[in-house]
Amino acid sequence: MKIGIDSFTIRELLLDPYRTIDYVKSRGFDGVQFDNGNFGRTNDKALYKDVRQYADAHGIITSMSVSSCNPLIVKQAEDEHVREVARQIEACAAAGWHELRTYISSYNERYVHPTPWNVHLEKSAAFISALRPTLERYGSRINIENHGETTFEVLQVVEQAGTDICGVCFDTANTLVNAEDPLLAAQRVAPYTHMTHLKDAIISFTDRGVRRQGKAPGQGIVDFKSVIAELGKHSPDLMLSIEDHKWLFEFNLFERDWIDRNPDLTPYEMGQYMKLAVMTERKIADGSIPDIDEYETIPYMEQMEERLSIGLAYMRGILKELQLD
C-alpha cells in the first residue's frame, strides 16, 4: 500500500496540479487524489496527460474524481449530465486514470432534500448504469465515496449498477456522521473498495446527539490498524489518500426522525458507536485530547503541516506493522 493525500486537504494553498505534485513529493507522500475542479473542469485531455506524465516523472501516483453521480443535486438536466460525466471519464482515461471517485450527497441532502432519499439512491444507480457503455469502453469504474450517504446505501447503489463499473471510495471518518462504526463499515465495503479517504475524528455528545471533529490520522478514535488490515485483505496495493480538515459536524441522533432515516443501523453497531463517543469523552476529561471548542478556534492552516506529518508517520508505522508497506 502507498500513502497519498486528497487535494482537498491542501486546497487553501491554491496550488495548480503541477505545484500540488511538487508539494506532495516534498512532504514524502506517494500520491495525490485530484478533484476535477483542480483542472477547472475543462476535460482537457492534453492537460490531463501532461499532468499525469509530470507526476509519473516525479514518482507520484495520481488518481482523479468526476462529478456527482446523483442527477438530483446538479444544475444540469439529467441527460446532459450523463454526457458531461461521460466526457470526464473519456478525458481521465486518456491520462490513464480509470478508478474515479464520485459521490451521491454533496453535504446533507440525505436529511434535508425535498425529494425522498431512496429516490436519490435509485436515480444514482440508474445514472451510473447509463454510463455503462462509456465505462466499459474505457475500462473505467466509478467509486462512490460515503460522503453524506451511509456505507449501506453506497453498497446498495454499487450492487444495482454492477461491481464491474461501480465500487467504493471509502472515507474512514465520514462513517461517523451516520453513526456507523468505522471498522464495521470497513468490513462491509472492503471487497468493493478501490479508492480511499483516510480521515480520523473524535465524536462527543451534545444535547441533541453527537458532533464530530476532524483529526489527523492517529489523533482520533478510528482503529486504523484494524481498518487497514481489513482493506488489505482485498486490496493490498490500495492507495491510502489522507483527507484532512477541521470543522465540527453535528447530527441529531437522539431524535426519532434521525433514527427513522437510518433503518440499517443495528443495536450492536449503535453500541459500538456509543463506545467511541464515551472513549472521546474520557480522553477529553483526562486531557489526552484537547478541548473541542478551543482546538477548533485554531485555523487549520496553522496546523496543516504538523497534522500531515503526524498522519503520514502514523500510517507508515501501521503499514510496516501489517507488512503492507
UniProtKB/TrEMBL annotation:
Keywords: Isomerase. GO terms for molecular function: isomerase activity. Pfam families: AP_endonuc_2 (PF01261). InterPro entries: IolE/XylAMocC-like (IPR050312), Xyl_isomerase-like_sf (IPR036237), Xyl_isomerase-like_TIM-brl (IPR013022). Residues 21-243 form the Xylose isomerase-like TIM barrel domain. PANTHER family: BLR5974 PROTEIN, HYDROXYPYRUVATE ISOMERASE. This is Sugar phosphate isomerase/epimerase. It comes from Paenibacillus hemerocallicola.
